[in-house]
Amino acid sequence: MNIYVGNLDFKVNENDLEKVFEEYGAVSSAKIITDKYSGRSKGFGFVTMENQDEAQKAIEELNGATLGNRDMVVNEARPKKEY
Q1: For residue 46, which of 59, 61, 60, 65 has the smallest C-alpha distance?
Q2: Residues in Cβ contact with 41 at an 8 Å cutoff, skipping those fewer than 6 apart
Q3: CA angle 53, 57, 62 (to 5 degrees)
Q4: What are phi and psi of 36, to 5 degrees?
Q5: pLDDT one-digit tens code per residue, 56-77
Q6: Exposed e or buried b for every residue in 46-67, given b needs 16+ CB within 10 A?
Q7: Intra-chain end-to-end CA distance of the chain, in Å
Q8: Strand partners, 45
Q9: pTM of the model
């Protein structure tokens, strides 16, 4: 399952994100989206977990949890809309 993680502190890196989600199960990947010019975090990212049940538990328990001075917004990622 692909999980959207928003409202991230700009100091949070991909390793931090992976460690938080690994408490709930195996993490395939953790990616923080960065500005392509400055390289600075855009404050959101995506985590991929193979096990659906573990991913759902992580979403339920981490949505609203604090990571690095900010409350994360965690939910199932939706496909990008084409305009």
Answers
A1: 59
A2: 8, 10, 12, 32, 33, 34, 35
A3: 150
A4: -70, -20
A5: 999 999 999 999 899 999 999 9
A6: bbbbeeeebbeebbeebeeeeb
A7: 24
A8: 5, 32
A9: 0.92
Residues 72, 66 contacting (CB under 8 angstroms): yes
Q: Which tens digits make up the pLDDT trace of 32-48?
A: 999 999 999 999 999 99
pLDDT value for 79: 83
Q: How confident is the model at residue 49 (pLDDT cuts 50, 70, 90)?
A: very high
What are the phi and psi torsion angles at 82 (to 5°)?
Answer: -95, 135
- At 50 the pLDDT is 94
